[in-house]
UniProtKB/TrEMBL annotation:
<dbReference type="Pfam" id="PF00583">
    <property type="entry name" value="Acetyltransf_1"/>
</dbReference>
<dbReference type="InterPro" id="IPR045039">
    <property type="entry name" value="NSI-like"/>
</dbReference>
<feature type="domain" description="N-acetyltransferase">
    <location>
        <begin position="6"/>
        <end position="154"/>
    </location>
</feature>
<keyword id="KW-0808">Transferase</keyword>
<protein>
    <submittedName>
        <fullName>Amino-acid N-acetyltransferase</fullName>
        <ecNumber>2.3.1.1</ecNumber>
    </submittedName>
</protein>
<dbReference type="InterPro" id="IPR000182">
    <property type="entry name" value="GNAT_dom"/>
</dbReference>
<dbReference type="GO" id="GO:0008080">
    <property type="term" value="F:N-acetyltransferase activity"/>
</dbReference>
<keyword id="KW-0012">Acyltransferase</keyword>
<dbReference type="InterPro" id="IPR016181">
    <property type="entry name" value="Acyl_CoA_acyltransferase"/>
</dbReference>
<dbReference type="GO" id="GO:0005737">
    <property type="term" value="C:cytoplasm"/>
</dbReference>
Length: 170
């Protein structure tokens, strides 16, 4: 089981059930935030899927655009049986390539996996200065929970407790 047997592709509607089953145990542990099925269908085009050698879905991850130069890596999850075999790595590389293609220069993430993201060029955010006050006030208009987490709003603090805010410039 090495990364050479892992392929990454765009998500399909038929993957939503599996994405939810990857997220569910992590949501129980408060590592990821679970969403309603409709949210995964609506956000499907943000998702990449990792497939094992037999075509089984062994991981997922999404890139959510927040602003002209800013996106978030979210819902990055590797099947527990495949941890440490490069699933997270190939997914994150694909999502960062998507960011470049889309025209985003900075990628944010909120995570407990600080070492993993650091090894992929992310740095711990020292403060809120990733966006200027004008963009901050525009982002406040978003209804997206991840954007609220990025802004560190009080209403999402229970979701973000213990997580580290990290950013990478591409
Ligand atoms: C973060 C996460 C996706 C990483 O997935 P993963 O598939 O285990 O990640 P990788 O295998 O690419 O990397 C893990 C380790 O395996 C090692 N590794 C990578 N490729 C390897 C390979 N081909 N063979 C053996 N080991 C390998 C790496 O050295 C890496 O070490 P590091 O974590 O110290 O950097 C996974 O831990 C996870 O699902 N976490 C829960 C959800 C989460 O916190 N997501 C992040 C916030 S959205």
């Amino acid at each position: 089981m090495t990364s050479t047997t892992i392929t990454v592709r765009r998500a399909r509607t038929s993957d939503v059930h599996r994405i939810r089953s990857l997220v569910a145990p992590l949501a129980d542990e408060r590592i990821l935030v679970a969403k309603e099925a409709v949210a995964y269908y609506e956000g499907l085009q943000e998702f990449r899927i990792a497939e094992g050698p037999d075509g089984e879905v062994i991981g997922c991850g999404a890139l959510h655009v927040m602003w002209e130069d800013l996106a978030e890596v979210r819902t990055l999850a590797a099947d527990r049986r495949w941890r440490g075999h490069g699933v997270g790595h190939v997914l994150l590389e694909a999502l960062l390539a998507d960011a470049v293609e889309i025209g985003v220069q900075r990628v944010f993430c909120l995570t407990f996996e600080v070492d993993f993201f650091r090894r992929h060029g992310f740095e711990v955010m020292a403060n809120q200065s990733a966006v200027d006050p004008e963009v901050y006030s525009e982002l406040l208009r978003s209804h997206d929970e991840g954007v609220a987490e990025f802004l560190d709003l009080a209403r999402v603090k229970p979701n973000t407790l213990g997580n580290t805010r990290m950013i990478r410039t591409l």
